[in-house]
Amino acid sequence: MAKHIGIVACSAEGAALCYRTICMEATHVMGEHCHPEITMHTYPLSEYMIHIRSGAWGKVAGLMLSSTEKLYRAGAEFAVCPDNTIHEAFALVQRKSPIPWLHIAESVAAEAGRRGYKKLAVLGTKYLMTGPVYPDALRKFGIGYEIPDPQERDKIDDIIFTELVNAVLTEQSRLFFNDVMARLKVRGCDAAVLGCTEIPLIINTQDAPLPTLDSTRLLARAALRKALQEDF
After folding, report:
1. What is the CATH number of domain 104-214?
2. Phi, psi at residue 103, to the nearest 5°?
3. pTM of the full structure
C-alpha cells in the first residue's frame, strides 16, 4: 500500500501544480487513474504573508504545524510543503511535527548533485533569495549559488506576488526571468533553481538560458517515491 501524502499548502498555484504532478506521474508506476491517497490543507496566503513580512517565523511555523496536525488526523503519514519561502521555518516545524517531512530545497539540492551542477542561480521571493533555505541545503552537497542583484530581486518578488500567485503569466515577465538567468550564467551559474513554486508555470525550459531545477515537480516526485517506498 502506498503511504498517505499530506500537503501543507501555502499559495494555490504552487500547491495545485504539486498535487497535479503527483497524481499524473503516479499513473506511470501505479497504473491508470491511480495515485497515493493525498490530503491537502492550507490557511489563506494572506495569513502567512502577515508573519513573513514581519519576520515572525515562529508564527509561520505555527500555521504550518496547525495544518500538519489536521493532515495527521486525516491519516497522512508524512508531509510536504510546495512553498520554498516558508521552509525558513522548517526546523521549528520538524521538531514538533507528528509526522515526518520532506524538505523542498534538499530535494532540489540532491537533484543538482546528481546532475553534477556546481553553482546554482537561486530565483524566488525576496525572502527566499536572501534567506538561509537554499544556502543551507546546497552546502550539504558542496554546491555554490548566486542570487540576482537587489533591483532584480525586487522585480522578481513583485512578479511572484502580483502575477504568478494569481495565475497571471505574461511574456514580458517570462523574458525578464530569462534575462536574469542569462546574467547569472555570466557570473558562473550552470543551472537555475526555480525556487518559487509558481515560477515553473512561466518558464519555457526550451529557451531558458540555463538548465532549470523545478522545485515544485522535484518535491512532488520525491513525495511519490517516499509514498511508494521506491527509487525510480
Report:
1. 3.40.50.1860
2. -105, 125
3. 0.95
